[in-house]
Amino acid sequence: MMNKIITRDLNLWYGDFHALKKVNAAFQANRITAIIGPSGCGKSTLLRVFNRMNDFVEGVRTEGEVLIDDLNVLDPAADLVSLRKKIGMVFQRPNPFPLSIYENIVFGARIRGTRAKRGEMDEIVETSLRSVLLWNELKDKLRSSALRLSLEQEQRLCIARLIAVKPDVLLMDEPCSTLDPQATERIENLMRELKNNYTIVIVTHNMQQAARVSDDTGFMLLGELIEFNETKDIFSSPKDKRTEDYITGRYG
Amino acid sequence: MRKFREFIIEKLVLLCGIASIFFVVLIFLFLLKEGFAVFKTVHPFAFLGGKSWYPISEPPRLGILPLILGSILVTVGAAIISIPIGVGCAIYIAEIAPKKTKEILKAGIELLAAIPSVVLGFIGMVTIVPLAKMLFHLPTGLTALSGSIMLAFMAMPTIVSIAEDALYSVPKTYKEGALAMGATHWQAIWRVMLRAASSGILAAVMLGIGRVIGETMAVMMITGNAAVIPHSFFAPVRTLTATIAAEMGEAVIGSEHYFALFAIGIVLFVISFGINVTADLFLHKRQ
């Protein structure tokens, strides 16, 4: 097994608030890692360190290292554009752009000024939509607005638009929290399929989801990574009392 | 007792509501009645398409095409100047400016909106007009161009504040999504946020143009007021509004000239109404 993302003594502050405390973890390639914990425990913050989305928050400060393929992404000189190409992010609320379905998918190529031919673009759109199982539903309305889709279709489209730029890592920040149970199940199936090609890190407040879909799980509480292990071990024999209390529903 | 007071207040407010509508309808009817009278002697097409406006010749020649073209020319010029600057300013305020600069700029824009148009016209008369004359070697600086520049200043506050509002209310998730895909800040603005705010920005532009087309004082002071068909931006023009303002005082009540000025009022009303309805459509589409 190969480590894709490694954090070393990662600390993060929002102003005076210590949001991540000495987080040490290794996320493995081609596996789904879930980060669970009660609201405000820092799980989304951790996710947003990996693609430097916290940079947009005022007064944020980080210490330590985050290595992705042996490259420290916290390096101020890191190339954020290529970093974010390599690491795609799926958000809690589906956020397709107010463009056509087609333009949503080629967005990544367009902002990189790729002068792909029409045919190549069409191919990117088809393969991306196929990989999220939307092609058959949408192939006849590629030119219509992406904002007229169902929530599930929108979320799939958001995943497709990431896949179109061939990332290594997919970060998912509670990707199913706005979806109904059936749609959630289908997205989870999609994740299982995608993990053959991508490293997936998913933040979820839904423990059942973590248990169903992930290979590894990290449990966070008040900014600390309390326990990190294979999912089956975390849920069957948690080593820390606090983990046990959380997964048995004593708080959170 | 309390109930009675409520009743009285309710009825009073109702009266205010009815009164405002009543007066608007009254004004509208008056405008129509006086304006349509001119069509007894002049065919509507001859009125709208006639190339000469000599209201006091004998018989009067009442063609308002030069005036319509004058209004359009000045308005188009003002739009060409104010739209890019206004939208650019809105982008800067909404997205790029640091907090303090933003506050200062917003206050500045409000200040610009507060300048009475006659003052702007006066300033334009002593600055832009001589400058235009000198720069382009014209016989007079009182041209459509001078008017456009001045009017652009009047449209700008409307355009900036409404467009800024539209950009500000674009869901943050769009921007985040674009940035997370590796877009630069500018790419996120250009490719996603402007699209998302497009209907609000169009409404801003329409309302700005609405203000320009209805403006009277400043254009009267600096466009030269020659009622001839303009052939370029460097020629004097006369707008619909300036015509009414300049001639209403001397038109004999009940004369053809007098009715023609009211008919110009109808034309202006139709144009403004059209612009406002379009702006409204865009605003509602946004919600």
Spatial strand arrangement across the major sheet of chain A: 6-7-8-3-9-10
How is the main sheet of chain B built? 2 strands, antiparallel
Note the total helix count of chain B: 13
Query: Which regions of chain B have little confidence, pLDDT < 50, spanning 5+ residues?
Result: none
CATH fold naming of chain A: Rossmann fold
Number of domains of chain A: 1
Q: Helix proportion of residues of chain B, in percent?
A: over 70%
CATH architecture of chain A: 3-Layer(aba) Sandwich
CATH fold node name of the largest domain in chain B: MetI-like fold
Layout of secondary structure:
The complex is a heterodimer of chains A (252) and B (287).
Chain A: E1 3-14, E2 17-28, E3 32-36, H1 43-50, E4 60-68, E5 71-72, H2 80-86, E6 87-90, H3 101-105, H4 107-111, H5 118-131, H6 135-138, H7 151-163, E7 169-173, H8 181-194, E8 199-203, H9 207-213, E9 216-221, E10 224-230, H10 231-236, H11 241-247
Parallel strand pairs in A: 3-8, 3-9, 6-7, 7-8
Antiparallel strand pairs in A: 1-2, 1-4, 4-5, 9-10
Chain B: H1 2-36, H2 44-49, E1 53-54, E2 61-62, H3 65-96, H4 99-114, H5 117-126, H6 128-135, H7 144-168, H8 172-180, H9 185-196, H10 198-214, H11 217-222, H12 240-247, H13 256-286
Antiparallel strand pairs in B: 1-2
Helix pairs in contact in B: 1-13, 3-7, 3-10, 4-7, 5-7, 7-10, 8-9, 10-13, 12-13
